[in-house]
Design goal:
The protein has 468 residues and is an alpha/beta fold. 40% of the residues lie in helices and 15% in strands. The strands form four sheets. Strands 1-2-3-4-5-7-10-13 form an eight-stranded parallel β-barrel, surrounded by six helices. α8 runs antiparallel to α9 and α13 packs parallel to α14. It binds the ligand C[C@@]1(C(=O)O)OC[C@H]2O[C@@H](O)[C@H](O)[C@@H](O)[C@H]2O1. The site of the ligand C[C@@]1(C(=O)O)OC[C@H]2O[C@@H](O)[C@H](O)[C@@H](O)[C@H]2O1 has 14 residues, from loops. Its EC number is 3.2.1.21.
Length: 468
């Protein structure tokens, strides 16, 4: 069976991780421009000052995407290029850059799929409380409206936020992302709520403005499964899914929070401040969401945390490797002997991916889904001139097969974006953890080179995954 003709085969990137040119053409300073220069915060002190210089090489990169036959390129817009201080004047050179990227994509028939927020917040907003401050939500809605107006005649696919759970949990629980706060659960939950409100307002504005196209949000998809049938561990599974998935997907798709969580937060004094107007907004806008974006890499295997293990902060505890307890200490993630893992301890589990999508359909109905990220972070072997990333081919093949099975079961998956189109800066792993179909040679002027997987994905797209 071939994937449907309107199914999108894409690949993704993010502004801070690829663009570089951190202070060029009027761009303002972002929280990541500052945070990445605090000693010890990033892997080997890496930062996005240059990244892979996509800002100057986007034409070369998009030509390579076209050579692959890529149908859609998911990229994010740096808020600090558009509104340098976050709330002030619009920077025309910032608009010019993204107009050029969009036009370059369209020149090849590549659909631009735009993420508005992929973690790089204007520093003045971060200093003013970041996502704990509702002023940031106000500023985000204006930023979104500037982008709709500037690009909405050619961009038909919009994602408001990428992985709220990551920038909020690492920002306020483990301190591995800006603003680098550890252990503040109240701030964490408040920040997530403020982001959901910002999302809802941006969706309503998009719909009211009559722009053509679709809008949604991208969440991490990290379904929890108990390590066994022990009732304590099955409880851990339900608890983990409530906090990792339902807390994030319910306010977007149901327009309300899971009571299991709000009741617990209220009892612990952690419930976010939420006005009736905000809750009415979430209810009103839930049906306006055209799709949900899933970033799936792996499931979480959980068990009741019967030890004194408590969540600890820092980069090392924030790279997703199992072994950490939940923020409330109720459960912990574990590695299992009969599972396969990446070098970073992420389980390779396409079956869990399909099981998880079935779970989502059961809870939220047949909402349109894009797989907005999926891929293998690895240290790719180089043999002479060849980058032989067969493990990445194997990983993506097995997960695309899961997507194909989901589609054949009637789950409404409309596209798949590999993370990442090109090797890029990983927030916490520097350039060590590669994801791309295109290699970037940091020892040779950031020269681009096609990997084995580049040619494999080209064939998958051309044949619409018929052989999978
Ligand atoms: C933590 C990590 C990683 O580096 O492996 O997860 C996978 C992928 O998720 C994306 O949303 C991030 O923008 C990208 O940088 C990657 O980040």
């Amino acid at each position: 069976m071939k994937m449907p003709k309107d199914f999108l085969f894409g690949a993704a990137s993010a502004s801070y991780q690829v663009e570089g040119a951190w202070n060029e053409d009027g761009k303002g300073v972002s929280n990541w421009d500052v945070f990445s220069k605090i000693p010890g915060k990033t892997f080997e002190g890496t930062n996005g000052d240059v990244a892979i210089d996509h800002y100057h090489r986007y034409k070369e990169d998009i030509a390579l995407m076209a050579e692959m036959g890529l149908e859609s390129y998911r990229f994010s817009i740096a808020w600090t290029r558009i509104i340098p201080d976050g709330t002030g004047e619009v920077n025309q050179k910032g608009l010019d850059f993204y107009n050029n990227v969009i036009d370059e994509c369209l020149k090849y028939g590549i659909i631009p799929f735009v993420t508005l927020y992929h973690w790089d917040l204007p520093q003045p907003l971060e200093e003013d409380g970041g996502w704990r401050n509702t002023k940031t939500s106000d500023a985000f809605v204006r930023f979104a409206e500037v982008c709709y107006k500037a690009f909405g005649d050619r961009v038909r696919n919009w994602i408001t936020f990428n992985e709220t759970v990551i920038f909020c949990s690492l920002g306020y629980l483990t301190g591995a992302h800006p603003p680098g706060i550890e252990g503040d659960a109240k701030a964490y939950f408040q920040a997530t709520h403020n982001v959901f409100v910002a999302h809802a307002r941006a969706v309503e504005s998009f719909k009211k403005s009559g722009y053509e196209g679709e809008i949604g949000i991208t969440h991490v998809f990290n379904p929890a499964f108990s390590i066994d049938d022990d009732e304590d561990n099955k409880f851990a599974e339900r608890h983990a899914n409530a906090y990792s998935t339902h807390w994030y997907y319910d306010p977007i798709l149901k327009g309300s929070y899971p009571e299991y969580v709000t009741d617990a937060l209220e009892a612990q004094g952690l419930l976010p401040e939420m006005t009736e107007e905000e809750l009415a907004l979430l209810r009103r806008t839930a049906p306006m969401n055209d799709f949900i974006g899933l970033n799936y890499y792996c499931p979480q295997r959980v068990m009741k945390n019967d030890s004194a293990l408590v969540m600890s902060g820092g980069r090392e505890n924030s790279t997703g490797k199992p072994g950490n307890p939940s923020f409330d200490g109720v459960y912990k993630t574990v590695m299992m002997d009969d599972k396969e893992y990446t070098k970073w301890g992420w389980e390779i589990a396409p079956d869990a991916f399909l099981d998880g999508m079935r779970m989502l359909k059961e809870r939220y109905g047949n909402i349109k889904i894009y797989i907005t990220e999926n891929g293998l972070g690895d240290e790719d072997p180089i043999a002479g001139e060849e980058i032989l990333d067969q493990p990445r081919i194997d990983y993506i093949e097995s997960h695309l097969r899961a997507v194909k099975n989901a589609v054949s079961e009637g789950i409404n998956v409309s596209g798949y974006f590999a993370w990442s189109v090109i090797d890029l800066l990983s927030w916490l792993n520097g350039y060590k953890k590669q994801y791309g179909f295109i290699y970037v040679d940091h020892k040779n002027g950031l020269a681009r080179k096609r990997k084995q997987s580049f040619f494999w994905y080209k064939d998958i797209i051309a044949t619409r995954a018929e052989e999978l």
